[in-house]
Amino acid sequence: TVSRVYVTRQIPPEGLEILRKSGQVQFELWNSDDPVPREELLKKVKGVDGLLCVLTEKIDAELLDAAGPNLKVLSTMSVGFDHLSQPELKKRGIRVGYTPEVLTDAVAELTVALLLTTSRRLIEATHEAKTGGWGTWRTLWLCGYELANSTVGILGLGRIGIAIAERLKPFKVKKFIYTDVAPRPELAEIIQAEYVSMDELAKQSDFLAVCCALTPETQGICNHNLFSKMKNTAIFINTSRGGVVNQEDLYEALSTGQIAGAGLDVTTPEPLPTNHPLFTLKNCVILPHIASASYTTRNAMSALAANNLLAGLRGEPMPKELKL
Ligand code: GLV
Ligand code: GLV
């Protein structure tokens, strides 16, 4: 039997090809690069068996009620799942697919790029070069902080945190430390990372990379309490979710010199309004949520999202299923 599916975005071609060739689904697509308006989405999901979404769609009780009882499978083209109401999905017996692992390399690579951009002040530097600030060579002008002999802290050690550490190691990092809800010795061993408390993570890190999922437990955990314990030479990097950070506290930490700099690929909200105070700070580098944005990875994510959806609709285990 052919299942009815709604796809909330123009996803990369590999995923669409898989859906088309399967002969298993009849799908309708929001054929745009921009999000489907909520009202439209609520209409379109009515009666579908499966839904393929991206991280801009809030999947909550209202939406699931609008879809109705046919909906059995939700597939999100993202590793993050904070846009999904897990209790509501679970209550309705809806299975959920997501896209971990295929994006680990791309996210780790971008995180390293963002870290170096922030610590070596590359955005400021190109701006100075272009706009006449480059008067002469100066001894301490545009100096930043180096990775060699540094301590790198990872907040939330998972695949992505490991992949970041593996890439940073050749820069002669002295020590990796991490914190998480509990030690993860089998992962930590890969990079010889030491488990420390949140306090110690803040105190010891020269570079602190946030790599945890956004959950009720991690909401706002990067706040004044954390920043005030950090070194004022420390660089803070977030490529997970904006909600993990208290942005007012981060602004304070950056503008008062409590910490040296921050590189953010994620913010609250997204997009961050162009008049947001964080944009006024030279020591804050903000990217528009592009960590997984390589052609290879975005295609792999779309393919995995399609395969998760199809397997779920067949009642089979999904290649990557989220345990609710
Ligand atoms: C991107 O942020 C993702 O969750 O895949
Ligand atoms: C995400 O895929 C993680 O495990 O860090």
TrEMBL record:
Residue span, D-isomer specific 2-hydroxyacid dehydrogenase NAD-binding domain: 112-291
Show the CDD domains listed in the entry: GDH
Gene Ontology MF: a single term: glyoxylate reductase (NADPH) activity
A Pfam family annotated for this chain is 2-Hacid_dh
Which terms are listed as keywords in the entry? Oxidoreductase
One cellular component GO annotation, for this chain's record?
cytosol
Transmembrane segments in this chain: where?
none
Question: Domain D-isomer specific 2-hydroxyacid dehydrogenase catalytic spans what residues?
Answer: 5-321
Q: Is Oxidoreductase one of the keywords UniProt gives this record?
A: yes
Q: Per its UniProt entry, which superkingdom is the organism in?
A: Eukaryota
Matching InterPro entries: D-isomer_2-hydroxyacid_DH (IPR050223), D-isomer_2_OHA_DH_cat_dom (IPR006139), D-isomer_DH_CS (IPR029753), D-isomer_DH_CS1 (IPR029752), D-isomer_DH_NAD-bd (IPR006140), NAD(P)-bd_dom_sf (IPR036291)
> What family classification does the UniProt entry report for this protein?
Belongs to the D-isomer specific 2-hydroxyacid dehydrogenase family.
Q: Which PANTHER family match?
A: 2-HYDROXYACID DEHYDROGENASE-RELATED (PTHR10996), GLYOXYLATE REDUCTASE_HYDROXYPYRUVATE REDUCTASE B (PTHR10996:SF230)
What protein name does the entry list? Glyoxylate reductase/hydroxypyruvate reductase
- Native species: Chanos chanos (Milkfish)
